[in-house]
Amino acid sequence: MGKKHETPLLDELKKGKWVSFVREIERAAEKSERTEDLLGQVENSYRDKITHWKHGGMAGVRGYGAGLVGRFTEFPEKYPGVKECHSMRVNQTSGFFYNSDILRKIADIAEQHAGGLLNLHGSTGDIQILGVWQEEAEEAFQKCAELGFDLGGGGSDLRTPSCCVGPARCEFANYDTLQICYDMTQAFQDEMHRPSFNYKFKLKFSGCSNDCVAAASRSDMAFIGTWKDKIKINQDEVKNYVKKFNVQKYVLDKCPTKCMLFEGENLVIDDSNCVKCMHCINEMPKALRSGDEKGLSILLGAKAPLVTGPRLGMMLVPFYDVLEDSKNDYEWLKGLISNMWEFWDEYGVSRERIGELMQRVGVVTFLEGIGLEPIPEMVNHPRGNPFIKFTDDED
Amino acid sequence: MPEEVKKKRITDIGPHDFHDYLPPVIKKNYGKWAYHEILDTGSMVHVAENGDKIYTVRMGSPRLVSGSFVRDLCDMADKYCGGYLRFTTRNNVEFLLDDKNNIEPLKKDLEKLGYNVGGIGNVVANIVHTQGWVHCHTSASDASGVVKAVMDELYEYFVEDKLPSKVRIAFACCLNMCGSVASSDIAIMGMHRKVPKIDSEKILNLCEIPSTIAACPTNSIRPDTKDGKQTVKINDETCVFCGSCYTVCPAMPIADSLNDGISIWVGGKVSNARIKPTFSKLVIPFIPNDPPRWPKVVEAVKTIITAYKNGAEPGERVVEWIERIGWTRFFKITGFEFTKYHVDDFRLAETTMNYSSQVRF
Q1: Is the pTM of this model over 0.90?
Q2: A21/B315 touch (CB, cutoff 8 Å), yes or no
Q3: Are residues A195 and A280 in the same domain?
Q4: What is the pLDDT of residues A313-345, one digit of tens each?
Q5: Whose CA is closest to A257, among B267, B316, B276, B271?
Q6: Judging by DSSP bridges, how do beta strands A97-99 and B84-87 pair with one another?
Q7: What does the pLDDT look like over B24-81, one tens digit per residue?
Q8: Which long-range contacts (CB under 8 A, 24 or more apart) does A33-36 make?
Q9: Are A283 and A185 members of one domain?
Q10: CB contact (8 A) between residue A306 and residue B134
């Protein structure tokens, strides 16, 4: 069978050693005829140097306002297969763990009810099935649901939470990122499927401050694992590392607070000055481990540039005992989240992320609004200017 | 729809419980891992407190994959690791093995199928990226094509450990920045450069005027009337081409085949190791779109990688290297031009100036 569309430009991207997405689109087209037209459409964009997707458009499944992202071609007559080319967001498992049986079934759904193409995974974390037509969206959704997979978030709602590999396969994890990600996703199903926020809201869970899920740069609320007590030292293993590389130069000298030193052959750490940056533990995982009093820090307000500029997560709660709170169905955390959502709902404007709201009203006003006290951990340093707005309660 | 089908409709069940997909050795040692060792760029071992081991073989992925790709992975997982596999936050595939002897045969099989094994250690990790022309309506560039061209060029750095530290590259096709671009060692970002074109015929039907005005970060959109009909006008002097208005209003298209392109940023970091997380900083404000292989973008990234490899000390991420040698020298070494666009003039611009007499000559 000959190709439906000639793709000389895309063919250039089948060359080279890195696995080719063009080859993947072609393989999908072998199973799902409509994807032939995706190749044609993308080649057209390569020729014209511009996207040929129309702005947005409605698509969805019954009872949900999210989970299906509408996409329509500008050239429905030329590329009828992508007249509609919606993507279905399917909520991934915590830590992206699967087995071959379930992945084959998801691939079947993608081939039978969509363009046979998937994103593993989307930027927020979902499995995305690409090339869905509205008429079959409901069936594709229900087939996923029968496998125990619901849809993810989209639009102005709670976006699909995601997490790092956590305690499943990482010794650095300071809390069970997979379990809390699962529990929070289950707790907030309504907020995910039925958009009612000012804008998107993202939750991400990293087990340590290496932050493999980039929570602190892209989630409104970032949960970063940490510990309060002493780093555990295995002095024998420290000695083994000393034999292998220059521990003084590459570990101790690079400690941001210089809180480590050798006393003879023994490594000593001033834990009261440790900022839990993970550098020494990363370099010597066999010798050093985080302490026993584990929990997480909560950072608030990270986001991409639109609308008023990018932000990184700001320290909000230095230590939260997640294990203790989980025994109580996360009563404290859910209270904090609902206080924030209420304040955001009351004072935020349309398309204002929570970090932007905090910036607009001021951190202190925001803290008062959600019921937290200002603490020194929140700032790099106290204010350096004297323009203080004293309030009457100082009298 | 018949009543019986309606009743059976399943909603609000949430994600599948991950416990169902954990390999037995992970279930047994959940939360009890003691340490890990990197074996080579394609594999590592995690050792549990009781001495149990799990081996991981990592391969790259273009993220946009076919059902056949998924079946290839499944066949490999069945053959070598009891069917268990996972994905990473940077879109790699990880096979989870309990038998060390299966590592090399699995790698060989994957390479035979044309897949790339690597990505662990001091390497260029898989590029996190967005949809581009394949699936996005606001993109200023394609994503997958640029990523493919860059990874072809940097392939040796994915499979061999020969950089001072890890290098994380990310790609976003516009300022919406669906990838985690803002905090990457090297960020590649699609840019628009012309003001949106207002379609005054359609704007009232397609858009809400107040929310369109509110979408602008520089207050450059104002209400207007044309032929007696409500529309908006844009202040060309202050518009920064971010495309935020187009996101809420389809009647303000900003994509422009002659003027869209790509910018390059360096020195972002999201981990807390040693220094705090920080955003990437501008290196090249604009490179015209040049499909199918964007040679100037590839060359720029290669130039940065080469300079970093030659100049950084072991363990230094890109930002640590640049801060040690200074930005002046970074521009000198790489040959990139420092222009008026490199001086920040947005919201926090003042915080980015040098308030000292410290310079390097």
Answers
A1: yes
A2: no
A3: no
A4: 999 999 999 999 999 999 999 999 999 999 999
A5: B276
A6: antiparallel
A7: 999 999 999 999 999 999 999 999 999 999 999 999 999 999 999 999 999 999 999 9
A8: A33/A81, A34/A81, A34/A82, A34/A115, A34/A131, A35/A81, A35/A115, A35/A116, A35/A117, A35/A131, A36/A3, A36/A4, A36/A5, A36/A81
A9: no
A10: no
ipTM confidence score: 0.96
Kindly state whether residues A191 and A319 are assigned to the same domain.
yes
In a domain, A23, yes or no: yes
B84:A27 CB<8 A: no
pLDDT of residue B347: 87
Chain A touched by B85 (CB under 8 Å): yes
Which of A21, A98, A349 faces B85 most closely, judged by CB atoms? A98
In a domain, A135, yes or no: yes
Per-residue tokens: B124: 């260029």
Q: Which domain holds residue A237?
A: 232-289
Residue B232 CA to residue B317 CA, distance in Å, equals 46
What are phi and psi for residue B182, nearest 5 degrees? -60, -15
Q: Is some CB atom of chain A closer than 8 A to the CB atom of B68?
A: yes
Separation of alpha carbons B93 and B236, rounded Å:
46
The dihedral sign for the CA sequence A216, A218, A219, A225 = negative
Which amino acid type is present at position A32?
Answer: S
For position A56, what pLDDT does the model report?
Answer: 78
Same domain for A47 and A119, yes or no, is: yes
> Residues A282, A332: one domain?
no
Q: Are A256 and A273 in contact (CB under 8 A)?
A: no
| Chain B interface mutation, best of A51, A281, A378, highest count of B Cβ atoms under 10 Å | A51
Whole-number Å distance between alpha carbons of B35 and B47: 6
Give the CATH number for residue A134.
3.30.70.2500
Answer for the pair B70, A120: CB distance below 8 angstroms, yes or no. Answer: yes
Tell which residue, A49, A353, A69, A218, has the closest CA to residue B173.
Answer: A49
A325 plus A196 within the same structural domain: yes
The ranges of chain B with pLDDT < 70 are 1-7, 179-180
Structure tokens at B357: 């007499």
State the nearest Cα–Cα gap between B263 and chain A, in angstroms. Answer: 15
User: Any chain A CB within 8 A of the CB of B80?
Assistant: no
Mutate to test the interface with A, among B16, B45, B282, B301 (most CBs of A within 10 A): B16
Residue contact A217–B182, C-beta within 8 A: yes
Cβ atoms of B129 and B147 closer than 8 Å: yes
Q: Please tell me the total count of domains within chain A.
A: 3
Which residues share a beta bridge with A84? A72
A144 contacts: CB under 8 Å, gap ≥ 6: A88, A90, A106, A109, A150, A151
CB neighbours (10 Å) of residue A15?
14
Give dist(CA A302, CA B270) in Å, integer.
11
